[in-house]
Amino acid sequence: MSSAGTPQEHAVSPAAPDPAATVLYVCADRGTMMPGLAAKRAQEEGRAFAQEHGLVIAEVITDEFGEPDPARRDGWQRVRALAAAGAVASVLVRWPAAIAPESSSEYRYRESRWLQEHGVRVRYTWAPLVALEKGAR
């Protein structure tokens, strides 16, 4: 209460998430020859990456490939909600195009920046990108 006897409002920022809390996001093309194979591989790689790095996957979120703007995908909206709530410290994706294709890279940069502003790190799980990241350290 204030000295005038009226309740004071306090902005509550989300609690810092457990640094191991992560979400695995899968947005993969459904191939005609082997539908679901790309999504299966993305999940396998993501789980292996999480285990190797001591991360705990709180949720696996999937979207169908096709919509270039991730903000228009139901699954990605869930990723954003978890980030905004402070429920996860990182998002695992197989490669950058899972967020947005190269032809729409501005969406990927926008979303990566938004996540970073909310304290969430984007981590790529595809082995060649993991090796590049290790080499950059």
Characterization of the model:
The protein has 4 helices and 4 strands, in the order βαβαβαβα. Residues 9-13 have low confidence and may be disordered. It has 137 residues and is α/β, with parallel strands linked by helices. It starts with 20 loop residues before the first strand and ends with a helix. It has a 4-stranded parallel sheet, sandwiched between helices. The longest helix is centred in the first third of the chain and has 16 residues, at 37-52.
Largest sheet: 4 strands, parallel
- How widely separated are the two ends? 50 Å
Q: Based on helices, strands and strand pairing, what is the structural class?
A: alpha/beta
Tell me which oligomeric state these chains represent.
single chain
What is the helix tally?
A: 4
Radius of gyration, CA atoms, in whole angstroms: 17 Å
| Amount of helix | 25-40%
Q: What is the strand arrangement across the widest sheet?
A: 2-1-3-4
Based on CA inertia axes, which overall geometry fits? globular
How are helices and strands ordered from N to C?
A: EHEHEHEH
Low-confidence stretches: 9-13
Report mean pLDDT, rounded to a whole number. Answer: 86
Strand content: 15-25%
Per DSSP E runs of 2 or more residues, the count of β-strands stands at 4
